[in-house]
Amino acid sequence: MSRISRALFCAPFLPWAPCATAHAQTVSPIITAGADTARPDDILVIGQNKHPIAIEPRGLSVSLGDAQFAGVNATNVEDLIKYAPDFFVRSRYIGDNNGVPGFRGTHSTQSARTLVMVDGFVISDFLGNSFSYPPAWGVVSPHEVQQFDIVYGPYSARYVGNSMGGIVNITTRAPEKTEAFFNLQNFYQPYDQFKSHDDLWGHSAEGGFAWKPRDSSWGARLSARRLINQAQPMQYYQLGYSAAVYDNPTAGTPILGAVVDPKLMPATGTKVVTPVVGDYSMILSRQDQTRAELRYDQGDVHSELLFAYWWNEEKTLDPASYITDAAGNPFYGNSSGLVSFGGHSYTLNAASSFRQGLFFKNEYLVGGKIEAPLAGFDVRLNLSTLRFARQDSYQSNGYAAGLADGAGQWTRQGPTGWYTGDLLATRTIGRHALAFGVDASLYETDQSVFNTSHWREGSDPALTTRTFGRNTTVGVFAEDAIAFGDATKLTVGARYDRWHAYDGGIIAVASSGAQAGLPVTQHYAGRTDHAWSPKVALRHIFAGDWVAELSLAMATRFPTVGELFQGSLNGDGSFNANSFDPTLKPERSKDANLLLRHRFGPVTLTGSAFYQRVHNSIFNFLGFNQNGVSTSSFKNIDITRQYGVELIAETHNWPIDRLDMDGNAAWIDAITVKNPSDPASEGVAFPRIPRWRLNGNLRYRVTPTLQAVIGVRYASRPNSDIDGLYRGDDYGYTSELFALDLRANYDVSKRLRFSAGVNNLTNDKAWVYHPYPQRTFLMEAGVKL
């Protein structure tokens, strides 16, 4: 579909692009269904009113519930928010465990700028800051979610500086009555890219029960889910470019069958597009998740205990080679590492191409909460931990070693995880709504990389590198929401954070010198830093039910243990000693957000304008060394800046009865302002941030038992690198995105329902370096007893 035809197709939906956003909760009469549950102190762009928002709404705030979830083909829990305004999750396939969220002008690998919680318990992986450190979404299944709350920006003093991008809280379903439930899903994706042609299938099964005796203070809920899916290859092998080799057309083994795609990103520093010779294998993903919750409610006392365990397994055991030798035999590289094709020569190392891999990650979340009145205050205490019981990655040294269970590499993570806690006390005295609190966290990581003689088992391990470190953050905060009559509220707050990084170090086996072959240990000095972060928000209701809110804030995001201490591997498997920086400075932002909201008859509109300026942004620079091997390194960027506007709309039963529409459009300008380490990036649009995001979700109740849904998602094509040199719509780029989604829900009875849908109906091929899913079909059935 061309850009023009896309725009024409999307045009009818743009006023309602899907935000599941919905009604503002204010004293003005702009709330429809469920208005009696709305809190008059809040201004929310909100899609559901049945339950109050679970996090403090400052700036743009969104709350999504069952009405919006019914319009989503959700296979991962994060799918439920894919139509939220100016927000995205980098979800590349069903069962993707690297789903990094991002707000507005946040890069899709700046994972440490988003605070994600389940029932108030932190699941954000602040061990690092990249696609490898996503929130632990999998501890909750899609059907166990009661609501999704999203707040944009760090405008409340109650939250740590990692809320610089925004905050997400998942509220799970409480045991409200005794019942049993079961849900089945099946999905299918016909995939076609380069010479990879696969029919990919998957399914999930979920069930559980809730126990809540009548008039009892106790309740419990237990559920479990299994998901198995075949996903498209995430990467493709390309012939390596070297100027000295390229100009020697007779070097190497002659090969046939490589794919020359002129749209691909050229090799660095050249205009040479390297041919594609195969894929990294389709992914066989298996996830098991179980969740148990116990609640107690008696008068003003509420307590709950949550336990969730997530088993995650991925296999990439079938890499496909597109190429053959002159005799027509499949070719997977050779010991010389040289091949010739199309009159030129390239590199193709047999030891690092067409690898097979296994990945295992087991995580568990334990959280406890108690709320009760104490000394005139309403007090809440949260304590939780998320631990990696296992995280192991195994990879073969090439194709032949993969088949024979030969030499390879084993990466082991552990002990790894985090502990978090917070104590909040609130009280209203006259026109003052006071809040005080303290919060703390401990993040620790330890990663070892071994060479092994048998890659599947990790047998005979020989250590190559080990990195480790810890950091703690302790914060205190205070807020005062001052009511000036019924129309005006001023909220002022401040937080103070003290951060400490320690026990950081690296052990690496020396490759030369007197200590060649021996482990060499380097410890890093501990670091301590602190920050004050003031916040202020002013809300006012004008005549005619116009509602406005201005929010201002400062925030500090301290470096993660991964950015400080944990190194990564180069593309050839060697350790990249420059991939981390123990001297990184914290990110410090200045933020502003202006909201204006009004209801025009059946249409409610919200406009939002935002601004953020960040000093010392921490960014992972990607590049190539002198040998053409990919490298990455974390560095500070002196100043980055973003601003933009958002328009959000919602209608109910308009323009015809039983038709609901939600939507949003966002325009963003995000640039690098000052960056002496890379002057070419100054004034250039920040990578992976589209100029436009447009979404739309239309839900029509055809009959009392049949609902039809149309969803639209669009993002314009951004830069793929910080210097703005690479823009494209193919593998290796971050591309334009267009997805048209359809869904139908049929209620056979109050206890039985069926759904069917398709994501990306037009089969648009989009990329976030990796390929997004192509056209995918889904069928679903659910039972409640």
From TrEMBL:
Boundaries of every TonB-dependent receptor plug domain copy: 66-167
Keywords assigned by UniProt, alphabetized: Cell outer membrane, Ion transport, Membrane, Receptor, Signal, TonB box, Transmembrane, Transmembrane beta strand, Transport
Membrane topology: Multi-pass membrane protein
Signal peptide interval: 1-24
Subcellular location: Cell outer membrane
Keyword Membrane: yes
Residue ranges of every copy of the TonB-dependent receptor-like beta-barrel domain listed in the record: 327-761
PROSITE patterns xref list: TONB_DEPENDENT_REC_3
Keyword Membrane set for record: yes
Pfam families reported for this sequence: Plug, TonB_dep_Rec_b-barrel
UniProt cross-references to InterPro entries, sorted A to Z: Beta-barrel_TonB (IPR000531), Beta-barrel_TonB_sf (IPR036942), Plug_dom (IPR012910), Plug_dom_sf (IPR037066), TonB-dep_rcpt-like (IPR039426)
Family per record: Belongs to the TonB-dependent receptor family.
PANTHER family: COLICIN I RECEPTOR-RELATED, TONB-DEPENDENT OUTER MEMBRANE RECEPTOR
The protein's name in its UniProt record: TonB-dependent receptor
